[in-house]
Design a protein that fits this description.
This protein starts with 6 loop residues before the first helix and ends in a 9-residue tail after the last strand. The protein has about 550 residues and is an alpha/beta fold. The chain has helices at about 5-15, 40-55, 70-85, 100-110, 120-130, 145-160, 205-215, 235-240, 265-275, 290-295, 300-310, 320-330; strands at about 25-30, 55-60, 90-95, 115-120, 165-170, 185-190, 205, 220-225, 250-255, 255-260, 315-320, 340, 345-350, 355-365, 375-380, 380-385, 390, 400, 405-410, 415-420, 430-435, 455, 455-460, 465-470, 495-500, 515, 520-525, 535-540. It has three domains: about 5-255, Rossmann fold, CATH 3.40.50.620; about 260-330, Orthogonal Bundle (Glutamyl-tRNA Synthetase, domain 2), CATH 1.10.1160.10; about 340-545, Ribosomal Protein L25, Chain P. Helix content is about 25%, strand content about 25%. The structure holds adenosine-5'-triphosphate (ATP) and magnesium ion. The site of adenosine-5'-triphosphate (ATP) has 15 residues, from α2, β8 and α9. Adenosine-5'-triphosphate (ATP) binds near residues 30, 256, 257 and 265.
């Protein structure tokens, strides 16, 4: 695997060399309000790989300070996703476990005259915050005495007030050029049960207040986050300083990862799930880690992909094809390469005895001999891809089957088409062929050249299968649709199902197994698969489409 190398690594090296820190401690702080997406994978991999590079530590810390949207299902999902990506956190912590310590720090700020209880509503507060060009207006509650603030804040905790009735705010500067410094909220009232704390608390700290303290409690040295927190750093440092935190962590920001034709925000992903536009968070079209995994992307492919995109202080949009490339690279020498027919055309080999089949040797992976061989069946009735047949050979570039043309059935025999059978509408229903016994694969036969090599599946042993083919969830952005809501920009063709056959060696396939279907693409067995009704998800196509002669 590629080594991690970026500007944050350089900062860490310098901090270790100068003695600013003794060891590297990072954390990944997801909010358990949805499943993780591939953007989070950038944050996970960056945090874990950087710490690993210096023998440091990485905590998983659930940022569970907003009970309105959080749920145990997501906590479990995030733990499972990390494990699947191959990372073991040094500790698993919960922001909510620090509620008492965080509360004490709020009391300290009140006592220092640096926090006050405000009676303004949220709307009034945001109205009075001013703008980038105009200063804010002080709240009438700003000059409450320390004693009054202490009493009110304790009453807030005790449940005396309704949601939104009071707010604890930091007392900084209502004219500060950075809006985040204009007396930001520290605590709000929410009478709602917390997934870990139950009804113990009805006041909850805001992210900007809670996060730096949590980093400090845990001894985090480098608190990494995406670029949108850039102008919160000043507040982060303010809270660390004013709360007199013993350990001083530092925040560093990196660019967010976006992928073409993909929506990468938990809020939008949740909307897709809630509106049933997808089958769930693990729908193979979703950019969630559970979705990507079900689709067939491997943890190694995702890691290599993330590392290959680099890291800078600029948000980046990466083409989805880069992830496909990482998957192909990862699976090229690992995946079995069985035969599958997605759009079957029935072939009757008229000179092959009825009721008989034979087995031929076939490499499991033509590029990796070590994977050995298996037996594939050949018999009187076979299936080939409809795209591998055309009635009349159009030109010399057609290197597949046609009437009066002979091809090699891969790892079997030369097969020649003699007759095309059609229904009353003129559609081809089957073709009649003959095979040449002398041309058995491996026999050294070389006195004629076939018009190409095509794959096939013998019919009596074939297993019925559904193939799910995916396109991006979102249509390309165009002049016409660029202002549409993302729900209106959904690709109506993002899922297509084909019914075909796979060779019998896949009878005992298990969910999540990866394959390269010969001349087609990478596929993974889906959880909807049943013994005689297999279901495969296409992860991605081969680089050169199977329509080309290979
Ligand atoms: P979203 O914006 O998708 O709702 P979020 O940032 O609210 O995600 P968190 O649970 O707060 O989600 O994210 C945990 C960490 O992952 C944060 O440190 C955040 O900076 C980082 N992160 C989230 N999305 C991306 C992304 N697309 N690229 C890089 N890092 C990301
Ligand atoms: Mg967030």
């Amino acid at each position: 695997m590629a080594e991690i190398n970026n500007f944050i690594k350089t900062i860490m090296e310098q901090d270790l060399a100068s003695g600013k820190v003794d060891a590297i401690a990072t954390r990944f702080p997801p909010e358990p309000n949805a499943y993780l997406h591939i953007g989070h994978a950038r944050a996970i991999i960056t945090n874990f790989e950087l710490a690993k590079a210096f023998n440091g530590t990485t905590n998983l810390r659930f940022d569970d300070t907003n009970p309105a949207k959080e749920d145990q299902e997501f906590v479990d999902g995030i733990i499972a996703d990390l494990k699947w990506l191959g990372y073991v956190p040094t500790n698993v912590f919960y922001g909510s476990d620090y509620f008492e310590k965080t509360y004490e720090k709020a009391i300290l700020l009140i006592k220092k005259g640096l926090a006050y209880v405000d009676d303004l509503s949220q709307e009034e507060m945001s109205k009075m915050r001013g703008s980038l060009t105009t200063p804010g207006i002080d709240s009438p509650c700003r000059n409450r005495s320390v004693e009054e603030n202490l009493r009110l804040f304790e009453e807030m905790r005790a449940g005396k007030y309704k949601d939104g009735e009071k707010t604890l705010r930091a007392k900084i500067d209502m004219a500060h050029p950075n809006m985040n410094m204009r007396d930001p909220a520290m605590y709000r009232i929410m009478h709602i049960s917390h997934h870990r704390q139950g009804n113990k608390w009805c006041i909850f700290p805001m992210y900007d207040f809670a996060h730096p303290l949590q980093d400090s409690f845990e001894g985090i040295t480098h608190s990494l986050c995406s670029l949108e927190y850039d102008n919160h750093r000043i507040l982060y440092d303010w809270f660390i300083e004013k709360c007199e935190m013993e350990h001083v962590p530092h925040q560093y920001e990196f660019g967010r990862l976006n992928i073409t034709n993909t929506i990468m925000s938990k809020r939008y992903l949740k909307q897709l799930v809630d509106a049933k536009k997808v089958s769930g968070y693990d729908d193979p079209r979703m950019p969630t880690l559970v979705g990507l995994r079900r689709r067939g992307y491997t943890a190694d492919a995702i890691r290599n992909f993330i590392l290959s995109t680099g890291l800078s202080r600029v948000n980046s949009t990466v083409d989805a094809s880069q992830l496909d490339e990482a998957l192909r690279e990862d699976q090229k020498l690992k995946a079995m390469r069985p035969n599958a027919i997605l759009n079957p055309l029935k072939v009757v080999i008229t000179n092959y005895p009825e009721g008989q089949i034979e087995y031929l040797d076939c490499p499991n992976n033509a590029e990796n001999e070590e994977m050995g061989t298996r037996k594939i069946a050949f018999g009187r009735v076979c299936y080939i891809e409809q795209d591998d047949f055309i009635e009349t050979k159009p030109n010399k570039h057609w290197k597949r089957l046609a009437k009066d043309v002979e091809v090699r059935f891969m790892h079997a025999y030369f097969v020649k088409c003699n007759e095309v059978i059609k229904d009353e509408n003129g559609n081809i229903v089957e073709i009649h062929c003959t095979y040449d016994k002398e041309t058995k694969s491996g026999s050294g036969f070389n006195s004629r050249k076939p018009n190409g090599n095509i794959h096939f599946v013998e019919a009596s042993t074939a297993i019925p299968a559904t193939f799910r083919l995916f396109e991006p969830l979102m249509l390309d952005e165009t002049e016409e649709n660029k202002d549409l809501d993302f729900m209106e920009r959904l690709n109506p063709n993002s899922l297509k199902e084909l019914k075909g056959f796979v060779e019998e060696s896949l009878a005992n396939t298990s969910v999540g197994e990866h394959y390269q279907f010969v001349r087609n693409g990478y596929y993974t067995t889906d959880k909807d698969s049943k013994p005689n009704a297999l279901v495969f998800n296409r992860t991605c196509e081969l680089k050169s489409s199977f329509k080309l002669e290979k």
